[in-house]
Specification:
single chain; 212 residues; alpha+beta; Immunoglobulin-like; 2 domains; nine-stranded antiparallel β-sheet; two-stranded antiparallel sheet; 5 helices; 34% strand; elongated
């Protein structure tokens, strides 16, 4: 359904009648009944309706359908060719699509940041959204903001993006995936296809992570 917010228009019709009455000494209601005015009643009525319609503004907000997606990233989903060291890391996220606006909120844990090159200072991991089906690796489309927790082993990621129509089609068709890298230029650490949100599957995934 549509929510319609009516904003009151200035009383132009009333002003019109007052303007007519301002040149006469008769009360407004008697002026309207004068023989010279009576033949013009239909014209005046239509004119008043037209003025009111033009001055009445309706703001309509169409309730667009919100679609919800999820990812359950683990190492088993990483393409074999780019799989690095074995890691218990995992990450989950919910994604909502309203029109072409995609909003992502997620978290990860058990990252084991030591998988990075020990000669370098540990870097904040990166989370990307890529086009592709399972087994494919392609350049990323979007990078999410990442915030590490104090333990240095877990954190959150989030972002809002305006997708193109083609990207929305890829999302709906299950041809976008998300991955996390412990090094910006390194292989994927964990990954999953972005798929329609299934509450039971997602809650089971979260419970499994807690038990671990």
């Amino acid at each position: 359904m549509s929510d319609v917010e009516d904003k009151k228009a200035p009383p132009f019709a009333l002003l019109f009648f007052l303007a007519v009455n301002s040149t006469n000494d008769l009360p407004l209601w008697r002026l309207y009944r004068q023989p010279t005015i009576r033949p013009m009643k239909p014209i005046i009525f239509i004119l008043c309706l037209a003025m009111y319609a033009c001055s009445t503004k309706e703001v309509q907000t169409v309730d667009e359908e919100v679609l919800t997606f999820s990812v359950m990233m683990v190492q088993e989903n990483v393409a074999t060719a780019s799989m690095g060291e074995i890691t218990p890391a995992s990450g989950g996220a919910k994604l909502t699509l309203l029109g072409n606006e995609l909003t992502v909120t997620g978290e990860f844990e058990n990252l084991n940041i030591q998988m990075q090159d020990n000669s370098e200072q540990p870097q904040t991991p990166v989370v990307h959204i890529h086009p592709g089906v399972p087994g494919e690796e392609n350049a990323y489309l979007y990078e999410l903001e990442v915030k590490m927790h104090d333990d240095g082993d877990s954190g959150t990621f989030f972002g809002t993006f305006d997708l193109s129509d083609d990207e929305v089609a890829l999302l709906a068709d299950g041809r976008l995936y998300m991955d996390l890298h412990t090094h910006p230029q390194g292989p994927s650490t964990i990954r999953d296809q972005i798929q329609i949100y299934e509450p039971e599957d997602f809650e089971t995934f979260l419970s499994f992570r807690v038990e671990e």
